[in-house]
Protein: Acetolactate synthase large subunit
Amino acid sequence: MTDMTDPAMNGAESLVHTLLAAGVDTCFSNPGTSEMHFVAALDHIPGMRSVLTLQEGVATGAADGYYRMAGKTACTLLHLGPGLANGLSNLHNAKKAGSGVLNIIGEHAETHITLDAPLTSDIQGIARPVSHWVHTSTDVASLGRDAAQAVQAANTAPGQVAALILPSDTAWTEGGVVAAPLPATPRADFDRSQLEAAIAALSGPDSLLLLGGAALTEANLDLAGRISAATGCALLSEWANARMERGAGRVSVARVPYPIDQALKVLAPYKRIVLLGARAPIGFFAYPGKPAVLTADGAQIITLAETGSDLAGALAALCDATGAKDKAPAHVAVASLPDKPTGPLNPDTIAALLGRAIPQDAVIVDESVTTGRGFFKATQGAPRHVWLNNCGGSIGYGLPVAIGAAIAAPDRKIMALTGDGSAMYTLQALWTMARENLDITIVIFANRSYRILRGELTNVGVGNPGPRAIDMLSLDRPNLDWVQMSRGMGVEAEAVSDCDGLEAALQTGLASSGPYLIEAIF
Structure:
């Protein structure tokens, strides 16, 4: 395909045609006046699925979830600088996850910017901290080529956030050019200069292969399991992973724990650590009197492959060099279900019930923060599934990412696991789930508090917090009523407080073909 110019085509139309030609066929939107010509182009040009969200953080999070499951970029449509600002939190998460997201951000016409109208802002300045690529299209003739470059940037491994700023006069002016797609940028080679050192390091139980990114696909985990069987090295993943393939028959990899004391204990035995798609472990926060670096003093750390490089090639090279190709992989999860718990809900009984409920090929979107720290052990023998974590730590990720995952994988059951405090940040996502009739079972862990911060008071040395401190971390007076809020958004819901109730509710939700919310109170 070559570039095509049409004197009667406006800039917005050339943008839509260029995006479709480049494989971008899904748009999560919350538009305003400056984007109306783009909205009109989406209306009369077939091929683009347009999904309306009620808040921009839902749109950006949905684009993140879409990329994780589809492996290709979706775009968002955001209104000027304030609209982009509303979406920054989940763009931060998308950037940390290595997700390809293309943000189309409306801008005033050039003649209007000089008037300093109320919505005028520094859009490029707002976009840069959460973007890898930022550009403003200044004329209709270059808009199509700018769009092709934006898609290429977003699809650069492992996935990047791109911001294309679209002035309204560029959108409405005729003379648009539909640009040909640009070739994808191949993954960089892994660091072959470190291969011999990595091979030497992986020997015995005091060595560790730490995995992240695309190393956590089923095929790559199989290679890692064979390397572990051949060398005796341990396997771990980062605490937060954009996508991990798990379940019975797959190589099971535990995560470096989130709590700093647990992480220090888990990592203490390892004298040699090879990084493959992962960063050297550090704490989420600084704590008085505790180290920020979580590995043992003097541990040798070798970076064989960064997350955007050829992780499969690095694992294959390790496999060849260690004689692991013919080994049966170690750490393969055996099909098993936890015993059925009874009584009131708590993190352990919830974990067991989830382990019993996960269906084949489900997608688990995990923003459980505190409640979910024990979920991995209870679910490792469940039917094969995919697990998506919040890699950036900015809360309000779970419900929007579930939307994108459901649209990218409509044939799979989506389970969104999130705390009540986290879910309130992007509550509007429920409305989009209902409008699109998405197959998502949502479990809200209603512990009536920012439970993680209760623990953090102790971790940072606040030994005896008073009632006002506790009050600032409590979600009561009044309690959040998730059943009423959910039904008000068009999503059927129920509240449960014991094991029998949660088991039955999970069966009902997973049997439904649309969204269903369960408020698990404990």
Observations:
- The radius of gyration is 24 Å.
- The mean pLDDT is 96.
- The chain has three domains: 4-178, 192-321, 347-521.
- The longest strand covers residues 4-10.
